[in-house]
What does this fold into?
Amino acid sequence: IARANGVVNDLNYLGTSGLFFVPSGSTLDYGEFHFSHSNMVDVASYSRFKQGDSVYEGNARSFATSPFPGIEIGMSNMGYDPDKGSDLIANIKYSPTFIPKNWFDVAVGAIDLGGETGMQRALYAAVSKEFDSSMGEFRLTFGSGSQRQQQTIQRYQGGFAGIEYQPFKWLTAVAEHDGVNNHYGFKLHTPVSWLGKGTQLY
It folds into this structure.
């Protein structure tokens, strides 16, 4: 998943490339395939519409790939209670390839297309800009979006922002505001040379 240059791209909780909940202005690189599993499930969506904390224990499995340059498609399956089934989410993201990479990255996308529940359904636009320094690489992301579902957490609508700091290819510090909540953390990636054939764990 490591790019030749720049901050490492991987999947966020909702199954699209980005930070933790915030989408970035770029897509996965052409030909890449990502799979993720986490126990984060949106309380407002899956815990009987309970309001409160932003995540709750459950199961979220996601994959995404880039079949064409600038195009990213993916799916997630999320569930809080095995007896109540789960929610299948389809995502798509587009980033114009004619914009020079040393300028900035911009992307538009849709989360949770179609389906019966549409608990995470959102449209968004994001812009990311990378900076190199002697201390490592930085990526700033800004954007906005909309969610039509009133029973879920209204991410993106007030605007979102995030910063990633990558002092090493295997370590990224992340801070973001998704329009509702703030999140902070670290991402660890195995070095490209460990598993071979471009495979990494993160």
About this structure: Helices lie at 43-46, 192-195.
